[in-house]
Amino acid sequence: MFLAPKEIKEPTGQCLVYCPRRVQVSKEFTFDAAHHLFNYEGKCKSLHGHTYRLQIAVSGFLDDRGMAIDFGDLKTIYKEHLEPRLDHRYLNETLPYMNTTAENMVYWIYQEVAFHLPKERGLQVESVRLYETPFSYAEFRKEWDQDGI
């Protein structure tokens, strides 16, 4: 049962979930890492580093607390499965064999989050955005994952 906000006065044992639709939740992280690019003629060919900014957006239907996913659960996924391979690392050694462009990295991060996301209430990764500089980012979205590779 969904209650309009004016009907909610105090917990009475009824469900306090108001929104019956899918809701997106996003959390942001930063990490520092070094890498170099293969098959590239420019200064990024050499070893260099970035302070990356990562945004992970997940959607789902609300639980009995009125949450799609707890922000702390997204933080746990990052801390346990992403941060050990990203933060203060040489990405060419800690990530799967790839050219460590923001485009390749954002897809890998999308896949990792999707794999570790609880499969309840229709939770799904909507998008992952990775800023390599304050004004340059790569993004991967769920609707672009057509092939399901």
Overview of the molecule:
This protein has a single domain, classed as Tetrahydropterin Synthase, Chain A (2-Layer Sandwich). The protein is elongated. Strands 3-1-2-4-5 form a 5-stranded mixed β-sheet. The chain has helices at 71-86, 91-94, 102-116; strands spanning 23-35, 48-60, 89-90, 124-133, 136-141. It has 149 residues and is α+β, with helices and mostly antiparallel strands. Strand 4 and strand 5 form a beta hairpin. It holds the Pfam family PTPS. It catalyses: 7,8-dihydroneopterin 3'-triphosphate + H2O = 6-carboxy-5,6,7,8-tetrahydropterin + triphosphate + acetaldehyde + 2 H(+). Pathway: Purine metabolism; 7-cyano-7-deazaguanine biosynthesis. Keywords: Lyase, Metal-binding, Queuosine biosynthesis, Zinc. Its EC number is 4.-.-.-.
Helix-strand blueprint:
Blueprint: E1 23-35, E2 48-60, H1 71-86, E3 89-90, H2 91-94, H3 102-116, E4 124-133, E5 136-141
Parallel strand pairs: 1-3
Antiparallel strand pairs: 1-2, 2-4, 4-5
Binding site for Zn(2+): 35, 48, 50
Organism: Streptococcus henryi
Protein name: 6-carboxy-5,6,7,8-tetrahydropterin synthase
> What percent of the residues sit in helical stretches (DSSP H or I)?
10-25%
Q: How many domains would you count in the coordinates?
A: 1
What's the level 1 CATH class?
Alpha Beta
CATH architecture label name: 2-Layer Sandwich
> What would you report as the Rg, rounded to the nearest angstrom?
19 Å
Find the CATH superfamily: 6-pyruvoyl tetrahydropterin synthase/QueD
Per DSSP, the total helix count is 3
Could you spell the SSE succession in H and E letters? EEHEHHEE
How much of the sequence is in beta strands? 25-35%
**Total number of β-strand segments?**
5
What about the largest sheet? Answer: 5 strands, mixed
